[in-house]
Amino acid sequence: MSTLAIDKGAPRRKVKYGSMSRDRAWALRWSYFFLALFAIFSLVPPIYMLITSLKSSAEISAATNPWWVFHPTLSNYIELLTSNQFLTFFRNSAFVSIFVVTITMLISVPAAFALARMRFWGSATLATGVFLTYLIPDSLLFIPLFKMFAVIGDWTGIQLINRWYVLLFIYPTLTVPFCTWIMIGYFASIPKELDEAAIIDGASWFQTLTRIFIPVALPGLIAATIFAFTVSWAQFLYPLVFTTSTDQLVLPVGIITTLIKGDVFNWGQIMTGALLGAAPPLIIYAFLMDYYIAGLTAGATKG
Amino acid sequence: MAEVMLRKVVKRYDEVEAVRGIDLDIADHEFVVLVGPSGCGKSTTLRMIAGLEDITDGDIMIGGDVVNDVPPKDRDIAMVFQNYALYPHMTVAENMSFGLRLKHYPKAEIKSRVTEAARMLDITDLIDRKPKQLSGGQRQRVAMGRAIVRNPKVFLFDEPLSNLDAKLRVQMRIEIKKVHQKVRTTTVYVTHDQVEAMTLADRVVVMNKGGIEQIGTPNDLYHNPATRFVAGFIGSPAMNFLPCRLEDVGGKLNIRLTDRIAFPLPGARAARYQSVSRTDKLLLGIRPEHLAEASAHPESGVEAFDAMLDVTEPMGMETLVYFTMDGTQVCGRVNPNAGARDGAPLRLAVDLNNMHLLNEVTGVVI
Question: Taking residues B18-47, what's their average pLDDT?
Fold first, then answer.
């Protein structure tokens, strides 16, 4: 710091060549350019949704300037938020997401701990296997899964299809492998001596997990939670296939099936519903953003 | 408080034998240092005592009980790790009390033990801080505090000072010694630094290639090494080894170093080496401090010779001189006023009363 102060006092010389800071300044300009481009690209659809949601059906069908609201109205919002149907979708989505996140964490955190720390026969292969299951697309899985629940229904009489809670069995097939994988990486970055110290201090495996690993790996845990929540909130294919009655639908499917009547698209309400549906993940992201980024980049550098 | 005993302890990883059947008795209250180069099995031995590694064969006893299959938490030991291994989300006090809290000690008891340990280690002011707010030396104190509050039968230290800078290392070395003088807990300490071993230990265990080379007090190892490995490992700068052989000249025993240089052995040494075969390939082991500038009135057994110095290293209180004898580099320690200069000749004297004679093939000190 002291040398820096001395340099500042010395007479300035104009740097003409080979300056690191000049290269960096240009790099910065280019990154701002592309970041701005990308921001426009990803922000235009939600803005368009917002504008449309503030228009009446008449104004939308009049095909005036799509980027301007001439007669702003909140009628779409009022109609949706006072409709029992929409609130049911919202409630179903919330239940499914909260339960799925809970189930996912209860399974994947202990699983990741076991795979990362308890060296047992085949643990490395199993860890890779867990990740490979995540790579199977849901469009490939939904038919066998549907068949499976149909068979269970036939044999046991327990009817799961067309119940919102069937999704609690299905979503974890997507979330558990990925969250386990995130947590394995996170747990692996915790130094080995830490659990050895805990073991010598007299902690059991379970105490090591709950009192050392989970608090230390909290950013990773939050990242995994956000992921699980986002996946279950936005999932479309599975609820479309497994639920059909309007009182069992979750938000994304509910909006599509109830607001599109035949070939009539209720654009104002569709846009409003989509915007309202995007709000919860947005709020969660906003609050946990710092943790989320820390969680994704952890283990990249030692320290 | 307890003694630790190792009986023919073996550790095998698949094909590699990391520890080859070592026997070691550590008395109650004793401070024993395991020292050796990396990969010699010293850390593995410590981890086996801790119970962090299974033993392949043999027995480990703590306080008279065989603990081969006892889990670490029931062995009543405490361990200090090289990278401190503090729990990053807990304060200093929570770190130190974690073990006691798991064992459901009464709150008052925990508090008094933590306060006492913190006072002993001079970290009372830091008690509410998190590890990341501490310096390396402070973290190491907390790690020691965590061991002390448990009041275990045995302390295990795994290279605890290796992550600290040189100055702090010296300071913490003294700190560890003070703590041991106060709590008197049986201690096993692993290091690769022979200075640390010498300064801390009641007894030093020199390990090499999975086996024990020699066990002894620091002075014992320094003055009476049993093998070439111990002789070369203990002491800095290291002992010089010069190829030599014995010869009889006129009824007296001489040691011949080169075609030109041979010295008569002093009486006591001559008697000791009388039975050594004159044809054996031998090594003269001589510490640098026994290779000094020649004085006007040499004692008996101190023989002078001329050397052409290659390099000199002034250290202040002494000057290290390096020269070559028949292709072997030799180091001596001379008085800074002896006039040693790079590339200049100097008359040196070797103190044969403090020599060691080794068999070059077996590496055993005769």
Answer: 91
Q: Report the SS3 class of residue B62.
A: strand
Residue contact A200–B79, C-beta within 8 A? yes
Q: Note the pLDDT of residue B225.
A: 92
Test the B interface: residue of A190, A200, A206 with most B CBs within 10 Å:
A200
Nearest to A204 by CA among A213, B87, B145: A213
Question: Could you report the per-residue pLDDT of B60-100, keeping only the tens digit for each?
Answer: 999 888 999 899 988 999 999 988 889 988 999 999 999 99
Of B52, B82, B103, the CB nearest to A202: B103
How far apart are the CA of A190 and the nearest CA of chain B, in angstroms? 10
Question: Over the stretch B296-344, which tens digit does the pLDDT of each residue have?
Answer: 777 888 888 888 999 999 998 999 999 998 888 999 999 988 888 898 8
Q: Which domains does chain A have, with CATH numbers?
A: 21-73 (no CATH), 83-297 (1.10.3720.10)
Q: Which tens digits make up the pLDDT trace of A206-258? A: 999 999 999 888 888 888 998 899 999 989 999 999 998 888 899 889 888 88
Q: What does the alpha-carbon distance between residue B15 and residue B27 come to, in Å, rounded to a whole number?
A: 33
Tell me the whole-structure pTM to 2 decimals: 0.80
Sketch out chain B's domains with CATH numbers: 4-226 (3.40.50.300), 240-359 (2.40.50.140)
Size of interface A-B (CB pairs under 8 A): 55
In order, the DSSP letters of chain A are -HHHHHHHHSPP----SS-HHHHHHHHHHHHHHHHHHHHHHHHHHHHHHHHHHTS-HHHHHTT--TT--SS---HHHHHHHH-HHHHHHHHHHHHHHHHHHHHHHHHHHHHHHHHHHS--TTHHHHHHHHHHHHTS-HHHHHHHHHHHHHHHHHHH----TTSGGGHHHHTHHHHHHHHHHHHHHHHHTS-HHHHHHHHHTT--HHHIIIIIIHHHTHHHHHHHHHHHHHHHHH--HHHHHH--SGGG--HHHHHHHHHEETTEE-HHHHHHHHHHHHHHHHHHHHHHHHHHHHHHHTTSS--
Long-range contacts of B83-86 (CB under 8 A, 24+ apart): B83/A191, B83/A193, B83/B163, B84/B131, B84/B139, B84/B140, B84/B142, B84/B143, B84/B163, B85/A191, B85/A193, B85/A194, B85/A196, B85/A197, B85/B143, B86/A197, B86/B131, B86/B139, B86/B142, B86/B143, B86/B146
In eight-state DSSP terms, residue B227 is: B
Least confident range of A159-168, A237-246, A259-268, A272-281: A259-268
Q: Does A191 touch chain B (CB under 8 A)?
A: yes
| Cβ contact B173:B142 at 8 Å | no
Compute chain A's Rg from CA coordinates.
26
Query: What are the pLDDT digits (tens) for B223-271?
Result: 999 999 999 999 888 999 999 988 888 888 889 888 888 888 888 888 8
